Amino acid sequence: MSAMPVDQVSMRRGRELLARARLDVEPGLRAWADRLPPRVRPLAGYHLGWLDEHGRARAAAAGKAVRPALAFSCARAVGGPPWHAVGAAVAVELVHAFSLVHDDVIDRDETRRHRPTVWKAFGIPAAVLTGDALLALAGRVLADASGPRSARQVALLADAVIELVEGEAADVAFETRTDVTLVDYLAMAGGKTAALMGCACALGALAAGADEARADHLAAFGRHLGLAFQIVDDLLGIYGDPAVTGKPVAADLAARKKTYPVLAALASDTPAGRELASLYAADTPIAGDRLAQATRWVTEADGRALAERAAERERTLAFAALAAADPDPDAAGDLTALAHVLVHREA
Ligand code: FPP
Ligand code: MG
């Protein structure tokens, strides 16, 4: 019998960790979401996946549980039991949920995880209020999880939310800017995506009794991984299979988003890069044949390859930060597998 290639073993371990984190976070998530008042509770349950539009129970919870998985594994990385990080895991997943519900309103995106978005199903006012409730609930959960350095954890979560908002605001500003650089992009994604992933790692570690220095190294691990994750998300927004991603084909190009592959293509000083620049500057809709052409230009101008390389670079930096945290070897293997699956995911 031939052994499975290392990558496949790592991918499987990473997927199993995500599935496990989903199971471990869900009871707490449900118990807390059930405490919400009746006008927002069904919408929270809808977004989190266990209710349908009519408030009826449905089978599957939604989302990959990336941030809870980071919190649990970082608790183990510092020698603690993962269940010490349940409150942290629930809190970061609730912040993530809040941010997606509001982001879909901001972007007017109509589908997420193969279903109508909350605003599409229930209207914008109800979606905004549901996001607000999820955010407040996250703080409430953490305030309740009395563990080591709990005040520090509440402060870190609040700081991450503020960074998230600043990153989202920068992303919105990108829509009307014509001078966005890759440096601007890294600052934006550092707030929009990396801050909460770094926070998930730090909170998991602190909940398990880590000192500040170790928690800082793990936060840096999560941030670099978050940047890699966002760049991969950008690649999926152009090249992802709609049947797998749950979003329309090349949706980010149709929306003229200034994502990593696009910015790299625009900066490439190639004929394809210039064609893409004039298409982005025009006000004709990017759809149908034009969308397929735009996708080819990004590839020809090396946007795809440069983005893949940037994601690899961030993953390497993440591993350096992980090593500096002097992690428990088995948990380090888990975090390495998670990094692998996040960078090579298809949705
Ligand atoms: C997908 O996560 C989410 C991201 C790549 C982060 C995007 C960040 C925002 C939309 C920031 C919004 C901020 C505000 C303040 C509105 P995922 O693939 O883990 O999603 P999943 O839970 O569906 O798996
Ligand atoms: Mg968006």
What ranges have pLDDT less than 50 throughout 5 or more consecutive residues?
A: none
The share of residues in helices is: over 70%
Q: Any guess at the CATH architecture?
A: Orthogonal Bundle
Beta-strand proportion: under 5%
- Name the strands of the widest sheet in spatial order: 1-2
Description:
It is a single chain. By secondary structure, this protein is mainly α. The chain has one domain: Farnesyl Diphosphate Synthase, CATH 1.10.600. Helix content is 72%, strand content 1%. It is built from 16 helices and 2 strands. A two-stranded antiparallel ribbon has the order 1-2. A hairpin with a 2-residue loop joins strand 1 and strand 2 (115-116). Helix 4 packs antiparallel against helix 8 (182-207) and helix 12 (260-266) crosses helix 15. The longest helix has 28 residues, at 6-33. It is globular and about 55 Å long. The chain starts with 5 loop residues before the first helix and ends with a helix.
Summarize the topology.
Blueprint: H1 6-33, H2 41-48, H3 66-77, H4 86-107, E1 111-112, E2 115-116, H5 118-122, H6 124-144, H7 150-174, H8 182-207, H9 212-239, H10 242-245, H11 251-254, H12 260-266, H13 271-281, H14 288-300, H15 303-324, H16 329-343
Antiparallel strand pairs: 1-2
Helix pairs in contact: 1-3, 1-4, 1-16, 3-4, 3-8, 3-16, 4-6, 4-7, 4-8, 7-8, 8-9, 9-15, 12-14, 12-15, 13-14, 15-16
The protein binds farnesyl diphosphate and magnesium ion.
